Amino acid sequence: MNILKLILLILFISLVIFTLMYEKISSQSQKKKTKILDNFDKPWSFSFIDDDNIILSERTGKIIYCNLEEKTKNSIKHNLKYFVNKQGGLLDILFYNDFVYISYAEDRGNNLSNTSVAKAKFNTEKLEFTNIFEAKDQYDTEFHYGSRIIIVDNYLYLTVGDRHNPDKAIDEEHHIGKIIKINLKDDTYSIFVKGVRNPQGLTYDSQTNNIFISNHGAKGGDFITKIEEGHNYGWNEVAWGGKNYVNTSIGPTWKKGFTKPSKYWVPSIATSSIVYYDSDKYPNYKNKIILGTLKEQDIRVIDISEDDTEIITVKVNNNNKYFFENLDKEIGFKIGKKYIFDIFDDSNKGRPLEIYFNGKKLDLEQEKGDNHSHFIFNPTTKGTINFKCEYHQGMGDNYIDIPVQGKFNNEEIIIKVNERVRDIKINSEGDIYFITDAGNLYKLK
């Protein structure tokens, strides 16, 4: 009998372990990758010419024309003067209106380089490129070229990394650490966004006319976000939660005066390419960002939709100076759990008297012996909300409105691919293709 009980116990434990394993796996996508082509040498980017053919850039210098049905590869000659180092070489490539656009680490002589963009009429034999943009200055560092390009309404947008010169990322005298907007009619350009470290993803949502980037942080602080002209993300005065690789502090996650990213990761997942998915082929992915990672070696499907703005009204007493001197706070919450949020820090003696969430009054708790005020609520939505406190003149001195800037779903569909994902593209049928640092081109099924 004891032996029988032991056997039953072992079977029960095995069943529990299997169930837990199954539940963990089922929380991820069950999609499989199918290898289409391989043996590329440090591939960086590819672009669909049509659903059967792509053009691909190898960082080490080749541009390759590939037929996906016949699984053939043919090198295309070109005239680019490129510089290959740890992260430099031929970078992002884009086929658009019978032209090929490419970003690359241009050899500026004397072991110096920087990011440039060139354009050539499409030809499968040879591409005669002409530069349309050259980032200011040149550097002897081998990192952070950025490089991603998209075209929207006859403007080309280019990401340029900080080239290991972070102090110049918010300085408009320099192009590094910026998103550049180039007019394809006359090649004039302007700085669109500044204060980024190494933005390795760039995509466009044609339905909402929004542009999104992914930014590779330091040791933590990767983020994705919608960008608008004039945004300043603050690198390296802020580090979005990250640290230096020697584990020293860089700066706060965020501070007043800089734009707060929509979603960021600490520790780092090493964000790379992103693409906006607007096809009906995979309904669970529609209107979401598909993100590749280097460190985690996976593909993530992320909901970046924003809910309508909601108002929390805070009634405060006359002693409260917090909101007038510190106008920004972040509130996070999780589904099914009560979340306590500190309105004030230790140095503030004011307290809120009433708080409403979607018109419903929230319970307040005041801890004895300190100056904290908390509100407790049990939301039905999972995610993180960022609030920007704004003084509302019409309601009198004792009221402040806090509009929600954006609500983003924290749930991610994770597709483990076990290779460093470098670039992701979608064809006209909604099929998802990606290349990896291992030199492989895959299709998700």
TrEMBL record:
Key word Cell membrane present: no
Domain Glucose/Sorbosone dehydrogenase: 40-309
Record-linked InterPro entries: 6-blade_b-propeller_TolB-like, Glc/Sorbosone_DH, Quinoprot_gluc/sorb_DH_b-prop
Protein's name in the database: Glucose / Sorbosone dehydrogenase
Keyword Transmembrane: yes
Gene3D superfamilies assigned to the protein according to its UniProt record, in alphabetical order: TolB, C-terminal domain
SUPFAM superfamilies assigned: Soluble quinoprotein glucose dehydrogenase
Keywords: Membrane, Transmembrane, Transmembrane helix
Annotated TM spans: 6-25
